[in-house]
């Protein structure tokens, strides 16, 4: 499962003016909201002798006419409510104005061309351009032409070794299911028929002959919620039909896994296959492609650690691993005997989490130090070449490329600096600005500070708090507290137009690096998993209490925000501490903890969550915090806007549907309990700019309105 930033996309800001005017009165939304009637059914499950009612089970049938009617009725109520917010359109216009500037991605060379992604401003999707040395840029692929409404996106683009061929995957309506097209890059003419029904897959070329990809058998019946639990690796040979594609890995005894990924080494010598049943830990296999009929050899044959290939130099493999190194290390081993007992450290484990990339003949160690990037350059003997000076304190991405590259590129950003791209000369170590963000936003007018606060059990947790200079810490400031806390995902500083507009209006944006994430390695992650999951919620609650105690905000001016696993975070915290915040914004959340593993690939999340079937203790633990099961009758919950999408086939919308139904049935009626359901959209990736702006405007407007603000 991947992190979703519900209020963030590619971000920017045009400076906007406006002051919030608030009233001490309750928001003037005209009394109680009249919710659509939601049918209750007598569905009961028995877990270890305990009966659990599931009255809204029918909403799991996301393709039924009854569910469709319910979705339409809920959206009607929600949008009627949003339309009465007097400043909603003003915020949407500010966001649209802020987004309207050119954004360019780092260039990369394939064959005779240099390629780059660019968005002119408000284009729904980024366009892929290319140019030859000294030539004018031309459009190579324009995803804005894939569909009339911009909801079909470019998900993956992969070039053959000499750049003469490309395969690209598209996603329709945000679905994780992909269609892959192959083209001649010079003529842009298609080669063969598209490949369909591909999910959770890269595209890895072998020479110019074909490529490897992964997928499941597409389920019968509902394509959205049915389980997909046997991933398989295929090889597609150009000039053949997809029906003739060979299953390379995933059918033989011992090869059944939920997640299989593959990559061919840059020299076309080795095929490396990662196989896993959960999102934490993997097996790793290697196959010698130079030897006809060679078999897969296990490098790691269990899932107790995570190991991934970085590159190879001849028969020497370079692997990044957390085996016997919770903060990760880089090792090397000869492919003839690649098992762990033969590994040699190249970059040893340190006190900070390590990620490794390579390019231009060097290795680049990317460390997180309290969620902040540090970069070191090494040669392949593990000798330090230099510490790389960065433009500031924040997050860095990049430092990767082909061995033949001389110049590499990296991006730099933080919460108050829009992302810019730098060119790095690997031999000299010199950096130069390649593309400066065109955002009309002056970071000198803002503050982004890191603090450390104590959680319930005394654990110190870092949090970065960002706001406009001159902010009075008198408890009056509208504040968004955003969190994730799971799946080893690290929240590092990044700029967002939505958050920048929020700060310009006088708001505070706070992000704690709570347990369950990867900021401090494996131990930090596991401290927020299974029967340690309450630590995650306690860390988030403590962050909110800190913001109130230190005068940044008050309970009445605080909003809780998070998406996907972060949606679970918000749902759990608002049901455990309904007094903590005035507003709750659970987005595409995992909210039914007793049944999450029965949908699509949800069973793969069991390392983090556990399942209700694994033991009576685990069942009771999940039941104790599952948001759907912990909405109490007559409680005044925060003003809540649940957000989801009708094509989300990762965290299916039934989670959000059932949670909203429970809130509407049981809430005390003090604050609105709404659900906003995007149509023809998915978990978040590939969402068109127009939909991102509309949703963000609704989220910010809903938050401010329910905090008591009456105008900008």
CATH class term of the largest domain: Alpha Beta
Give the assembly state of these chains.
single chain
Number of domains: 3
* Global morphology: globular
Q: Kindly report the average pLDDT value.
A: 92
User: Helicity level, as a percent range?
Assistant: 10-25%
Question: Widest sheet: strand order?
Answer: 33-34-36-35-37-38-39-40
Sheet bearing the most strands, described? 8 strands, mixed
Q: Which fold name fills CATH's third level, the topology of the largest domain?
A: Rossmann fold
CATH architecture descriptor text of the largest domain: 3-Layer(aba) Sandwich
Specify the structural class: alpha+beta
Number of strands: 41
What is the fold's blueprint, element by element?
Blueprint: E1 21-22, E2 44-47, E3 50-53, H1 65-83, H2 88-99, E4 103-104, E5 108-110, E6 113-119, E7 127-131, E8 138-141, E9 152-159, E10 165-172, E11 177-184, E12 195-199, E13 204-206, E14 210-215, E15 232-237, E16 246-249, E17 259-264, E18 270-276, E19 283-288, E20 297-300, E21 307-313, E22 316-321, E23 329-334, E24 344-347, E25 353-359, E26 362-369, E27 372-378, E28 384-387, E29 395-398, E30 407-414, E31 417-425, E32 431-435, E33 446-454, E34 460-468, E35 479-482, H3 497-504, E36 508-512, H4 522-526, H5 534-549, E37 558-563, H6 565-576, E38 583-587, H7 606-609, H8 616-625, E39 639-645, H9 654-666, E40 673-678, H10 689-706, E41 709-711
Parallel strand pairs: 35-36, 35-37, 37-38, 38-39, 39-40
Antiparallel strand pairs: 1-41, 2-3, 4-6, 5-6, 6-7, 7-8, 9-10, 10-11, 11-12, 13-14, 14-15, 15-16, 17-18, 18-19, 19-20, 21-22, 22-23, 23-24, 25-26, 26-27, 27-28, 29-30, 30-31, 31-32, 33-34, 34-36
Helix pairs in contact: 2-10, 5-6
């Amino acid at each position: 499962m991947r992190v979703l930033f519900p209020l963030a996309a590619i971000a920017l800001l045009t400076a906007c003016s406006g002051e919030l005017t608030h009233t001490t009165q309750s928001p003037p939304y005209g009394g109680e909201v009249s919710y659509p009637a939601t049918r209750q059914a007598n569905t009961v499950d028995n877990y270890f002798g305990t009966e659990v009612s599931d009255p809204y089970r029918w909403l799991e049938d996301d393709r039924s006419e009854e569910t469709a009617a319910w979705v339409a009725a809920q959206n009607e109520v929600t949008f009627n409510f949003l339309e009465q917010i007097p400043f909603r359109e003003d915020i949407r216009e500010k966001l649209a104005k802020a987004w309207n500037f050119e954004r360019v991605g780092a260039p990369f060379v394939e064959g005779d061309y240099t390629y780059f992604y660019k968005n002119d401003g408000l284009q729904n999707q980024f366009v892929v351009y290319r140019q030859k040395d000294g030539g004018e840029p031309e459009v190579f692929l324009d995803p804005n032409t894939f569909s009339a409404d911009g909801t079909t996106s470019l998900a993956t683009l992969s070039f053959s070794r000499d750049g003469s061929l490309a395969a690209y995957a598209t996603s329709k309506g945000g679905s994780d299911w992909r269609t892959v097209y192959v083209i001649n890059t010079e003529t842009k003419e298609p080669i063969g028929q598209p490949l369909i029904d591909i999910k959770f897959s890269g595209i890895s070329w072998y020479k110019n002959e074909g490529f490897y990809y992964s997928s499941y058998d597409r389920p019968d019946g509902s394509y959205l919620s049915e389980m997909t639990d046997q991933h398989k690796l295929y090889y597609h040979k150009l000039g053949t039909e997809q029906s003739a594609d060979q299953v390379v890995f995933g059918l033989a005894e011992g090869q059944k896994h939920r997640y299989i990924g593959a990559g061919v080494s840059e020299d076309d010598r080795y095929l490396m296959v990662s196989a896993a049943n959960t999102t934490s830990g993997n097996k790793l296999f290697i196959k010698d492609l130079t030897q006809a009929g060679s078999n897969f050899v296990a490098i790691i044959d269990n899932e107790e650690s995570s190991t991934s290939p970085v590159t190879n130099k001849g028969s020497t493999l370079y692997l990044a691993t957390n085996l016997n190194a919770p903060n990760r290390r880089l090792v090397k081993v000869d492919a003839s005997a690649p098992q762990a007992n033969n590994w040699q450290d190249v970059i040893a484990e340190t006190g900070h989490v390590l990620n490794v990339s390579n390019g231009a003949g060097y290795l680049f160690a990317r460390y997180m130090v309290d969620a902040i990037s540090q970069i070191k350059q090494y040669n392949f003997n593990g000798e330090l070449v230099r510490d790389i000076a960065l433009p500031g304190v924040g997050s860095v991405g990049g430092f990767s490329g082909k061995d033949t590259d001389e110049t590499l590129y990296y991006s730099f950003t933080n919460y108050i600096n829009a992302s810019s791209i730098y060119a790095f000369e690997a031999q000299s170590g010199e950096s130069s600005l390649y593309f400066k963000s065109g955002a009309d936003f002056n970071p000198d007018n803002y503050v982004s500070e890191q603090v450390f606060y104590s959680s319930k059990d005394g654990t110190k947790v870092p949090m970065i708090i960002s706001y406009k200079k001159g902010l009075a810490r008198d408890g009056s400031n509208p504040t968004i507290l955003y969190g994730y806390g799971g799946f080893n995902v690290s929240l590092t500083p990044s700029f967002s137009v939505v958050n920048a507009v929020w700060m310009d209006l006088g708001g505070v944006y706070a992000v704690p690096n709570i347990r369950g994430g990867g900021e401090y390695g494996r131990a930090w992650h596991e401290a927020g998993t299974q029967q340690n999951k309450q630590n995650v919620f306690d860390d988030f609650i403590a962050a909110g209490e800190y913001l109130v105690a230190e005068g940044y905000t008050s309970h009445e001016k605080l909003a809780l925000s998070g998406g996907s696993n972060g949606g679970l975070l918000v749902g759990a915290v608002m049901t455990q501490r309904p007094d903590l915040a005035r507003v709750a914004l659970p987005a595409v959340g995992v909210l039914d903890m007793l049944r999450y593993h029965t949908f699509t690939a949800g069973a793969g999340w069991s390392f983090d969550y556990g399942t209700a079937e694994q033991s009576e203790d685990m069942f009771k633990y999940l039941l104790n915090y599952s948001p759907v099961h912990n909405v109490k009758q007559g409680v005044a919950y925060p003003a809540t806007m649940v957000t989801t999408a009708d094509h989300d086939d990762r965290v299916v919308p039934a989670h959000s549907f059932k949670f909203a139904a429970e809130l509407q049935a049981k809430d005390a009626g003090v604050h609105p309990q709404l659900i906003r359901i995007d149509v023809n959209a998915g978990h978040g990736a590939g969402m068109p700019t127009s939909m991102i702006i509309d949703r963000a405007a609704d989220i910010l407007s809903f938050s401010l309105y329910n905090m008591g603000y009456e105008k900008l």
